[in-house]
Amino acid sequence: MSETPHTEPTDSADSPDSPDFDAMTRDIAEVPAVEVIVTVAVNLMSAAAVKLGLTEEGEEHKDLDEARKLVHALAGLLDAGATEISSFHAAPLRDGLKSLQLAFREASIIPDEPGQGPGEKYTGPVYG
Predict the structure, then answer these.
(1) Alpha-carbon dihedral 103, 45, 73, 60, rounded to 10 degrees
(2) For residues 31 and 38, what is the distance between their CA atoms, to the nearest angstrom?
(3) End-to-end CA distance of the chain
(4) Which of 31, 63, 94, 119 is 20 to 30 A distant from 71 in Cα terms?
């Protein structure tokens, strides 16, 4: 008797488990750009805070290399999007960014030179 190879069923568009990309596209089309930018910025801030060990779990998730990347990306986004999101949205995000930059500096065993910390390419040197 020959055995038939076992193959996994492929996801089809009709599968109840497959995402409805048409609905997702319609949903994102209705979201204003300002809201998308602010949401991404808040997500970057939250992820950076976790990687800086600023959550209840603290040291468990601390990873300064990852935090550096997230803070740098946040600074770049805010630098590029500041004129698009208005100071009403940008000011608190900039404050949060500065807090993360200071937290990074405090968490670093060997602090970066002023102007060389994460995101300081976009914000200038951050001092405590």
Answers:
(1) 60
(2) 11
(3) 76
(4) 31
Running DSSP on this structure, what letter comes out for residue 108?
-
Whose CA is closest to 120, among 100, 90, 106? 100
Q: Which helix (H) or strand (E) holds 90?
A: helix 64-107
Q: What is the pLDDT of residues 63-103, one digit of tens each?
A: 999 999 999 999 999 999 999 998 899 999 999 999 999 99
Q: Name residues whose C-beta falls within 8 Å of residue 18's C-beta, 6 or more positions apart in sequence.
A: 11, 12
What span, in angstroms and rounded, lies between the C-alpha atoms of 119 and 101?
8
Distance CA 4, CA 13 (A): 26
Token code pair at residue 90: 């940008």
Crossing angle for the helix pair 64-107 and 33-51, nearest 10 degrees?
70
